[in-house]
Amino acid sequence: MGEGGGRERKRERSVSFRFFHLIYHCAILPSNEEKRALLKKLTKSVSTFVLHGLDLHIYNHGYFVPNFLHSCCSLVPCSVRFWKQSSCRVMKRTSSVSLKIPPRPWICASDVRYAVHCVVFVGWIVAFEVGSGALPFFFHFFGSEPGDSTGAAVARDEFDPFERYGATITLLMYSLRLTSLLVLPQCICNMLGLLFFNGFRDKVILKASPLLAPFVCFRVVTKGLYPELVRDNIRKNLETCYEAGIENFIFEVVSDQPIHLTQGSRVREVNVPPSYNTKTGARFKARALQYCLENEVSILHEDDWVVHLDEETLLSVNVVYGILNFVTEGKHPFGQGVITYANHEVVNWLTTLSDSFRVADDMGKLRFTFSCFHKPLFGWKGSFVVTRAGDEQKVSFDHGMEGSIAEDCFFSMIAYRDGYTFDFVDGEMYEKSPFTYWDFLQQRKRWLQGIYLTVHSKHIPWKNKILLALSLYAWATMPFTTLQVFLCPLFPLPRWPITDALVAFIASVNLYMYVFGVLKSFSHKYRSNFLRLVMYLLAGIVTLPFNVLIENTAVVMGMYGQKDGFYIVKKDLSVLDV
């Protein structure tokens, strides 16, 4: 028993250590409170354990089993056998301890909400088509319409608009109708994204241990105008990361002005020298981002990851898990997820409700194009950007003035041109909508100008930017197409069945997206109060005219103003005159 028994005891001690390591990381990973309590109870019931062999199977999405055992798989009950250990001697085998983890139900609350949403969404589109009079073209093929067995209703709608209105008005009305179709690809992708993917899941399931994740750098770029805001949010985000159990990370704050952060192993401050210039003369945020990529500044390796945040962005535990899943898998070098705007104090209700459309947009076309095509067909936004450090350096932010206004969109188009792939990142980050109407207007104006410069850049082929271009032109012609609301009742046109149906489809999808965005943005506020939910939905609908007015004004200012400015919205309540 001498040598063999010694090897056996050594092996058992080693396995014991691994088991304690496993129990610890099971406890800090996201899971059902009942399961977490079960683990705590298990660790208290016996002082020390030694596993008999390496056949521990905990197949549960909420718990991690290291690679020397097995990966996380399906949900099944499990049984684990233990032996008590006292000091270094293995004691007599005790009865087995069963850790029974109930399987995930076939249908959970999020699945029910998702199913209801799909039925309501499709029903809303059909009802809107019927209510607007676009669907009767089906009956036209049978020679009649509802309530008219002779087809006389169709005949009454057939007239020559050129004779009735003249050539100028007729061409104008048809132009308005056709221009409305520019946004059709965007609406189709939004519809498919909202229908194909469940946007109601409350928790992101961690698929691997944080210890196995690569190094992650959370990078915050700021002008340094709001140092207290930056310091406070860094502190909050650090607490979130600790709660999530992430191990290999750092926060890097890149500022034009000193923030005077307390630096350490988790926080690094980088100040961009006033004398720094890029090769192509990039400015504003693009210049600061490019400075981080310089060899003498960057501390990252090619296989490390960067998560780009705005200075007001707050992380959630869910989004940290989503990022860890994305970077651990490492299949795609670029990724992005959802940002919501109402999870914390709401400063301006009008701008926050208007931004609910952006939430639905992220969960619609962004998720659909990133998950199905792995391409930024419509670009992406500048916050909640996840990139592999080496690939980000190859694409770079040094693209001159045309890549400095909407540096995020330009970057995505260059990466798309060069063949890089993208994917959707689970979880949500939190930001605040602009505090004032002027800031809201200036923000939209800058986006429009930046996308305009991106679309008309000679460095990006049309095959890569065609859908982005259609989206831009649909936005730029909003003042033109909005006239339909006033002119169509005055100058009705003969039915054009396919076009009428498509225009009604566009209107129904866009209206539903406002409602869906409100549901997602304020879900934490109305869970136990149905009346409050109704109030939020009504408020979202009431803000529609305001949003249309702002978007139209931004178009006029953006298209006819100078396209070399970078307006920074106010992000600190202390600077507002209340």
UniProtKB/TrEMBL annotation:
Residue ranges of every copy of the Glycosyltransferase 2-like domain listed in the record: 305-519
InterPro entries per UniProt: B_mannosylTrfase_Bre-3/Egh, Glyco_trans_2-like, Nucleotide-diphossugar_trans
Keywords: Glycosyltransferase, Insecticide resistance, Membrane, Transferase, Transmembrane, Transmembrane helix
Pathway: Protein modification; protein glycosylation
MF annotations from Gene Ontology: beta-1,4-mannosyltransferase activity
Transmembrane portions of the chain: 114-139, 178-197, 466-492, 498-518, 530-550
Keyword hit for Transmembrane: yes
Record-linked Pfam families: Glyco_trans_2_3
Gene Ontology cellular component annotations, sorted alphabetically: cytoplasm
PANTHER family membership: BETA-1,4-MANNOSYLTRANSFERASE EGH (PTHR16779:SF1)
Family, per entry: Belongs to the glycosyltransferase 2 family.
Protein name: Beta-1,4-mannosyltransferase bre-3
UniProt source species: Bursaphelenchus okinawaensis
